[in-house]
Each structure stands twice: as C-alpha cells, then as structure tokens.
Amino acid sequence: MSHSKILILDFGSQVTQLIARRVREAHVYCEIHPCDVSDEFVRNFGADGIILSGSHASVYEEETDQAPQAAFELGIPVLGICYGMQTMAQQLGGKVEAGQKREFGYAQVRARGHSALFRDIQDATNEQGHGLIDVWMSHGDKVTELPAGFKVIASNDTTPIAAMADEERKFYAVQFHPEVTHTRQGQAM
C-alpha cells in the first residue's frame, strides 16, 4: 500500500464497500466512516482525498445527510459519487431536483472539456469525434444547476450534468458509479 490515505464518507450506499475495494485495488489505503462525522474528525483524519458515497435519499428532503463542511475546506481532492455529487452540488450552492426520467443501468456519457478525471479515457467516439464513456447509472434525482466555479465534464440526453468539476479546488463529481465493473473505465478514473 502507498502512503496515500483516502477518507470515504458513507451516506448509506449499498456499494460503499465496493468503492473501498476499488481504492484498495489501486494500492491506496482508505477507511469508511459515517457521513455524519464531525468537522474535527475530518480535519484530523489526515486524508489525501475524500470520497462522498451514494445514497438512496434525496438531498432536497427536509432531513437529509450532508458532508461535513471541513471536507470542502481542506484543499484536498473530493470525489462525489451519485448522491455524493448531489450533496456536493447542493452544499456548494448548486441545485438538485427530481428527474423527469430515472436512469438505471447502462448509459453512455459524452466527456466534455478536458477534465483531469477523464483524461485519456473513452470507450468510443461519436460521429463528431467526441469521446464517449460507458457507465452505470442509478438515480432519479439530478443536478440541474452547477455551483459557482464548476463546469460540466460529462453529459447525456437524460442527464445534462452527468459529471462536474471545479478543477481549481480539485472537486470532482459523477452521477454514475465508477466503482462497478459495468463502468468499464471506472478504475482508470
């Protein structure tokens, strides 16, 4: 194992253990902790990066879990996956709404721009030569407005904001699940 250390904040996803497994397969040490740990815990953990897991909940519900604010203040990379993307968006000033169409299963997203998260990653190209990535979606809600400083880095017709990034702060988020084998390039991400 390398000396890198990742903190996974668990929002209740049924695949949080799989996220940890993929991190460990990359020879990086990680620990899973509940999403409601204190800001002090997050600051003292000594993480080189934080992953916000998925959840079955909706971020706009009256009582819903949020990431500790310290996760966004440490100056380290943060990756939000599914619900993790949604809570990142909402907590940082974006907007999340119930989608008109749920996505569950295989989808293809177009990589947009040149994000570090998708650098040199594609499964196919469209007629215009744009990179396409095969992914596994599982969501009903979606980000409809980006927080300040973010840009869209992947999209499809059903989910116009399928991934977003604030490269300056090293915040990345994906609506799909890179940890499952159905997302063929997930480990590369």
Question: What's the layout of helices and strands?
Answer:
Blueprint: E1 5-10, H1 16-25, E2 29-34, H2 39-45, E3 49-52, E4 78-81, H3 83-91, E5 95-111, E6 124-125, E7 131-145, E8 151-155, E9 163-166, E10 171-174
Parallel strand pairs: 1-2, 1-3, 3-4, 4-10
Antiparallel strand pairs: 5-7, 5-8, 6-7, 8-9, 9-10
The number of helical segments is: 3
Q: How many β strands by DSSP?
A: 10
CATH superfamily: Class I glutamine amidotransferase (GATase) domain
Look up the CATH topology.
Rossmann fold
Number of domains: 1
Strand content: 35-45%
Q: Could you tell me how far the N terminus lies from the C terminus, measured between alpha carbons in angstroms?
A: 19 Å
Q: In terms of structural class, how would the helical and strand content be classed?
A: mainly beta
What is the CATH first-level class name?
Alpha Beta
Please give the CATH architecture: 3-Layer(aba) Sandwich
Explain what this protein looks like in three dimensions:
The mean pLDDT is 89. The protein is mainly beta and 189 residues long. It is 14% helix and 35% strand. Strands 2-1-3-4-10-9-8-5-7-6 form a ten-stranded mixed sheet, sandwiched between helices. The chain is globular. The chain has a single domain (5-174), classed as Class I glutamine amidotransferase (GATase) domain (Rossmann fold, 3-Layer(aba) Sandwich), CATH 3.40.50.880. The longest helix is centred in the first third of the chain and has 10 residues, at 16-25. The two termini are 19 Å apart. Helix 1 (16-25) links the parallel strand 1 and strand 2. The chain has three helices and ten strands; from the N terminus they run E-H-E-H-E-E-H-E-E-E-E-E-E.
